[in-house]
Amino acid sequence: MTTEQTQSIQVEDDRSGLGIETLRRAIADNLFYLQGKWPEIATLNDFYMALANTVRDRLMPRWLNTIRNYRRSEVRVVAYLSAEFLLGPHLGIKLINLGIEELVRQAVADSGLALEDLLAQEEEPGLGNGGLGRLAACYMESLATLEIPAIGYGIRYEFGIFDQELRDGWQVEVTDKWLQYGNPWEIPRPESAVMVRFGGRTEAYTDDEGAYRVRWIPARVVKGVPYDTPIVGYYVNTTNTLRLWRAEAAESFNFQAFNQGDYYGAVDQKIYSENLTKVLYPNDEPLQGKQLRLEQQYFFVSCALQDMIRLHRGAGGDLRQFHQKFAVQLNDTHPAVAVAELMRLLVDEHRLPWDAAWEVSQSTFGFTNHTLLPEALEKWPLPLFGSLLPRHLEIIYEINQRFLDQARVHFLGDSQKLAQLSLIDESGERYVRMAHLACVGSHAINGVAELHSELLKQTVLKDFYQLWPQKFQNKTNGVTPRRWLLLCNPRLSQLITEHIGTDWVCQLEQLRQLEAYAEDREFQRQWRQIKRAVKQDLADHIQQTLNIAINPDSLFDIQVKRIHEYKRQHLNVLHIITLYNRIRRNPDIDIVPRTFIFGGKAAPGYIMAKLMIKVITSVAEVVNNDPQVCDRIKVVFLPDYNVTNSQPVYPAADLSEQISTAGKEASGTGNMKFSLNGALTIGTLDGANVEIRQAVGAENFFLFGLTIEEVQQLQESGYNPWDYYNRTPDLKEAINLINSGFFSHGNRELFKPLVDSLVYDDPYLLLADYSAYIDCQDTVGQRFRETDTWTRMSILNSARMGYFSSDRAIREYCQDIWHVTPISVQLKPYVQADA
Ligand code: AZC
């Protein structure tokens, strides 16, 4: 190469240069050397990859210095164990958190490209189902921003949550191929692989010192390989690691089988091992008997704990002090087998006495519960558990025996209580109760909103609460303002910053300063103008992708979340049909034009949820094509709702639908994202709605529906939906219209399961809440017409959402559960090999 050529593509040696020209050359350089392309033949995705690698280079010094820092010092590290991390696309948030968005935009423009087009190329890592996985992602981001030493441990699913397509209005699941073009945001670390054992049997023996011990002789071994992803904090050097594990065959070939001519048998073993981390299980599916799911859980938990022990010992730590190095949080019960695995590692492998090991374990773990739904409480059939994890079952028996001895004293031998508390459910077929294991093995147990935490104490974990009231806490969820305001709503962010400065980004409570502008005409006008512009963008997108014309001045009434009966998307549909009937009855009726927007996936095996999607799309088809109503009501179902697709949705909402049956939604986090972006909420007293309403003021929240107490009373007194159906004419008319085949081309069978479930059973009390909901919606419509009032309410919603930052939530976890403190990371020019 001539000197001239070298100069034209080389970048500064440390690859950290941030000059626009340097960035432009770095992108060209990566395109050439990593993608093997030159601009004329490069695809947009090639450019995206070149840019992603350019950005990755620039975060490496922070990342490596962060790792070095944690290894060296006697710092306590948070280990967040979660089967799901729903990160969303990396590039946009990394540009923002590194503070280089504008530079990069310019450099990309100088290369003749638009940053937005490149951002749109990214396939998001859909390694989660919904709220629980997304919460884990917000928490990782806040941990980094708050400079808390932390590592996330999870599973590198080859196929994340399925992509949703709509065919003929039905959900069709399509495999998520997020890795097909490679993933620039991860670094595999095969040198840090660990072995995970499964099956087989146990055997007692006496060790050299004459002590009784147990060894586990597994039937098979799988290798866990870590893949590390950097999580960049906002305007800090701290860049934490998300370490996701992939399963591989322990030997890439079983040579014995190979030599015997059993080539396919040898390959089978490899395939079997790699299957372990192939696919994310959708929630809302019965998991009992899904051995692979238990294998996944044990696999990543064992990898994580072995990794932590290695790190701890590598830094010269004593295992009796393991809990001083790591605070491990169990994100729901999916990683709960960690309690038994840590005991096994400490007692069997590292020969700690049981009591010392138990002390360490209990001090190490905290447990967060995310749901009260009985069907979601994990329990594993004993035979399945015992055949996969024979040693862990013995350990669980031992934990259980000691625990029940303790409980027996407390409950004076009340045998019913003891049966309820036991780690083993023996009421019929025998099961291991994972929530019980997590409670017994943890020093702190928390729910995710005040109401939810209270209900935990009164219902599913009542007996544990009686035993250990001091273990119970509440940690109301939060969302990161970086992704959920700064990134997704740049216009509003700028307006806010112009008025109150930039501090709100890391101190969300600062938004309260906006209260001063709530009545300010000029500010109101700007606020409205931005909402209008964002709605126009979404309308354009809907026009282009779905060919539906919507009116940006209509009330955008949005419900986006997983499709589930308890979330009651079909209650929303009953409102739409009610409005439709009103217009048909009285074509000149004066109603506020509304655009109803839905989005969300249904679990593939959840028939009723899939039927709910079909009823939404069927009503949409009729309403949108009825010339009499379509200028006043439009219904849109956004396909493939995921983090990427959600980002333009929250800012465009006027009204946020949070209408679950009281007592069913643990917290909700979408409710927070909407309100933060200035939407008003119509909601029940459920989950975090209660606290949101308190925060924004009851007068700025549309409340309706039965309270938990009323729900309980109604159910106890024998709820009969049929009565409600008969005595509420509008309701009856709406349901009858569905039943008549009106929305299904005359097919009266199609929606029968849904209608029958409502009028004969209605476990989620839609019919009981219907009238209150409709009345409340009427109030919403009236209020929307009072433009200034609505705008003031909208401003006050944003202004008062400070509490719902994930920074606040993480600070509380740090103080009350993990006992960790921030450490600031200093940048050194390069990381030395001996560091
Ligand atoms: C969800 C809860 O349903 C939701 O209310 C809460 O906000 C969220 O967790 C975060 O705490 N639970 C799940 O998503 N559960 C699973 C198994 O995915």
UniProtKB/TrEMBL annotation:
Transmembrane spans: none
Question: What reaction does this catalyse?
Answer: [(1->4)-alpha-D-glucosyl](n) + phosphate = [(1->4)-alpha-D-glucosyl](n-1) + alpha-D-glucose 1-phosphate
Q: Name one GO molecular function term.
A: glycogen phosphorylase activity
Q: Which family does it belong to?
A: Belongs to the glycogen phosphorylase family.
Residues that the record marks as modified (N6-(pyridoxal phosphate)lysine) are: 673
- State the organism of origin: Halomicronema hongdechloris C2206
Q: Which cofactor does it need?
A: pyridoxal 5'-phosphate
Superkingdom of origin organism: Bacteria
Protein known as = Alpha-1,4 glucan phosphorylase
Annotated EC: 2.4.1.1
Cite the entry's keywords alphabetically. Carbohydrate metabolism, Glycogen metabolism, Glycosyltransferase, Pyridoxal phosphate, Transferase
Q: What job does this protein perform?
A: Phosphorylase is an important allosteric enzyme in carbohydrate metabolism. Enzymes from different sources differ in their regulatory mechanisms and in their natural substrates. However, all known phosphorylases share catalytic and structural properties.
By its UniProt entry, which InterPro entries does this protein fall under?
A: Glycg_phsphrylas, Glyco_trans_35, Pyridoxal_P_attach_site
Q: Does the keyword Transmembrane apply?
A: no
- Return the broad EC class: transferase
Q: Indicate whether Glycosyltransferase appears among the record's keywords.
A: yes
* Any Gene Ontology biological process: glycogen catabolic process
One protein family per Pfam: Phosphorylase
One GO location term (cellular component): cytoplasm
